[in-house]
Every structure is written in structure tokens, then in C-alpha cells.
Design goal:
Number of helices: 0
Strand order of the largest sheet: 3-6-5-4
Distance between the termini: 33 Å
Number of strands: 6
Strand content: over 45%
Helix content: under 10%
Largest sheet: 4 strands, antiparallel
Shape: elongated
Radius of gyration: 19 Å
Order of helices and strands: EEEEEE
Length: 101
């Protein structure tokens, strides 16, 4: 049978083997990732939080690609300050041209 994926992307994990019986209707068969964008997480100190807002543009550098800068926008700003560290988790969605990240 042909199974059509609900999204375009790359198969990153296969839970079945060719010829395996399909008796379990709820069984996961593959994991497909659309890597056109990725999410990154950071911790912002409470004192710096006033400089961060939802939708704000960001530029990110990664150690593995030191000559590249990736752009995106802040997608989530945490609502709780972590106890002793006094940081707030922040997430940003980055564009991932050519699937480099």
C-alpha cells in the first residue's frame, strides 16, 4: 500500500521494516521533519527581559558554522522567572536555508 505523508520533509526515523505486518492501526511508522525552520532556546536574565519582546527579530550564530548568521523571530517568552538563576526561557524560530541547522 502507499502511505502519503501529511507534510513534506525528510524521514529521520523509521519505526517499521519492509514487509512488516500493519496490524496495529495506531503504530508510529516514521518521523518526518520539515527543517525549513528550526526552534532555538535561550535563557534571558530577568534584568534584561525588558529588552525582549514577542516577534522581535534575532540573529543567531552557532559554533558548528562560525561564518554563518541565521535570522528569525522570537516565538515564545516564558512567563515564569526561574528561582535561583533568575532567568526566563525564550524561544526563537530561525530560518534554515539549505537545511544547514
Amino acid at each position: 500500500i502507499t502511505i502519503t505523508a501529511p507534510i513534506a520533509g525528510i524521514v529521520v526515523d523509521r519505526e517499521t521494516t519492509p514487509g512488516e505486518s500493519g496490524e496495529d492501526a495506531g503504530k508510529k511508522i516514521m518521523t518526518i521533519v520539515n527543517g525549513s525552520s528550526v526552534q532555538v532556546a535561550a535563557n534571558i536574565y530577568e534584568k534584561d527581559l525588558k529588552q525582549v519582546r514577542l516577534g522581535q527579530p534575532v540573529r543567531v550564530k552557532v559554533n558548528g558554522l562560525p561564518d554563518r548568521t541565521f535570522t528569525g523571530r522570537i516565538s515564545t517568552v516564558g512567563a515564569v522567572v526561574e528561582g535561583e538563576t533568575r532567568v526566563v526561557p525564550v524561544k526563537a524560530e530561525l530560518q534554515n536555508p539549505n537545511g544547514l541547522l
